[in-house]
Amino acid sequence: MKISEILKNNQVTVSFEVFPPKQWDKIEQTKEVVRKMSKAEPSFMSVTYGAAGTRSGFTTEIANEIKDCGITPLSHLTCLTSTKHKVDEVVNELSENGIENILALRGDIPESFVFPDKQYFRYAYELINEIKEIGDFCIGGACYPEVHPESKNQKEDIERLKFKVECGAEFLTSQMFFDNEKFLDFREKCLAAGINVPIIAGIMPITNANQIKRSIELSNSSVPKKFFRIMERFGDDAKSMKQAGVVYATEQIIDLMANGVNNIHIYTMNKPEVSEPIMRGLSDIINK
Ligand code: FAD
Predict the structure, then answer these.
(1) pLDDT for res 288
(2) Handedness of CA 236, 179, 41, 53 (dihedral sign)
(3) How confident is the model at residue 208 (pLDDT cuts 50, 70, 90)?
(4) Could you tell me if 2 and 99 are in contact, meaning their C-beta atoms sit under 8 angstroms apart?
(5) pLDDT confidence of residue 144
(6) For the chain, what percent of residues have pLDDT higher than 70?
(7) Gap between the Cα atoms of 37 and 29, Å rounded
(8) Cβ distance 74 to 140 under 8 Å?
(9) What mean pLDDT do residues 3-9 have?
(10) pTM, whole model, 2 decimals?
């Protein structure tokens, strides 16, 4: 099924993200994670893509497992460090496997990267154009409530986002954020700029103290005082931190929904023991 269909009519959706293993001999473990998570019946499940595309087959394999579990898969695809030929090959492989949804991403710029030639892509919108040439996919894009780190300011970032949507992104998934006000403000600005596609809120449950440092560094997200206090109080105790992280994420989702945000994507970090209690905490809300 196409994700545009799932997102139709502004119904409540909660989807999950998983990542493939780095080595093929761990693929069965990741498939087991998918099988466990699918029991919570997410609206769809996405699977990330390794930056250089060297393990693209891993992403397809996990997307197929998601499909076999009866859940709609969304395959991520990056383009910056892949040739046009490689991108075409992966998109054709997804099509042959009956995968209808692609999150089209640029990928991060590796250190001392030099753009080689015209066979390469510079921005995600170019990848969107390429995918549209190849087949009939539902294509999504990424967005940044707290501004992409390479952008000068939010106005410029949103203008480029609008162009990405005009090129064919039918929905947007946000970078993680911990302060709902940042997302709600961003969503309003997108609407004002004429971006009318669904914007799915990306929620990262923080369940251990080391994870937060890395997540903030990678995502550029601001962290509310309330969250720091939770970290200070429970950060040294793994079990307490996990429970507090699950409750914080659940509360964040409920507050977003109370503000009219109906589409949530959970960065599960491949932990069914985290996604499952969040879904349980939302059960009556989701089933309305
Ligand atoms: P773009 O939309 O191309 O934007 C990148 C920068 O270029 C922005 O600053 C933008 O404002 C600017 N820009 C865009 N268009 C133009 C233009 N026409 N002219 C000038 N500047 C422009 N990475 C992975 O490697 N694998 C993954 O699976 C993965 N999944 C992700 C999922 C989500 C939901 C998110 C939010 C990010 C994910 N990433 C992943 C990280 C992503 O690849 C990086 O954040 C990357 O730096 C930007 O990708 P993008 O698709 O947003 O790029």
Answers:
(1) 62
(2) negative
(3) confident
(4) no
(5) 98
(6) 99
(7) 12
(8) yes
(9) 95
(10) 0.97
User: Based on the number of CB atoms within 10 Å of its own CB, is 8 exposed (0-12), middle (13-18) or buried (19 or more)?
Assistant: exposed
Q: CB neighbours (10 Å) of residue 232?
A: 10
**Ligand 1 contact, 124 CB (< 6 A):** yes
CB-based contacts of 130: which residues, under 8 Å, 6+ apart? 79, 84, 87, 88, 91, 121
Substitution site in 160, 171, 200 for ligand 1 pocket (most atoms within 8 Å of beta carbon): 160
Q: Please classify residue 114 by burial: count the beta carbons closer than 10 Å to its beta carbon, then call 0-12 exposed, 13-18 middle and 19+ buried.
A: exposed
Mutate to test the pocket of ligand 1, among 82, 102, 148 (most ligand atoms within 8 A of CB): 148
Residue 45: strand pairing partners: 16, 73
Residues 22-35, mean pLDDT to the nearest whole number: 96
C-beta of residue 87 within 8 angstroms of C-beta of residue 121: yes
CA separation for the pair 80, 52 (Å, rounded) = 8
Neighbours of 202 (CB within 10 A): 24
Which of the two residues, 51 and 5, has the higher pLDDT score? 5
56 versus 97: the higher-pLDDT residue is 97
- If you measure from the C-alpha of residue 243 to the centroid of ligand 1, how many angstroms do you get, rounded to a whole number? 32
Which residues participate in catalysis according to the annotation?
Answer: 17
For 181-208, give the secondary structure using H, E and C. Answer: HHHHHHHHHHHHCCCCCCEEEEECCCCC
* DSSP SS3 for 54: coil
Instruction: Tell me the average pLDDT across 87-95.
Output: 96
Tell whether the model's pLDDT for residue 258 goes beyond 80: yes
Average pLDDT of every residue of the chain: 94
Tokens of 32: 């087991």
Q: How far apart are CA 28 and CA 196, in angstroms?
A: 39
Average pLDDT over residues 78-97: 94
d(CA 64, CA 71): 10
Does the Cβ of 81 fall within 6 Å of ligand 1? no
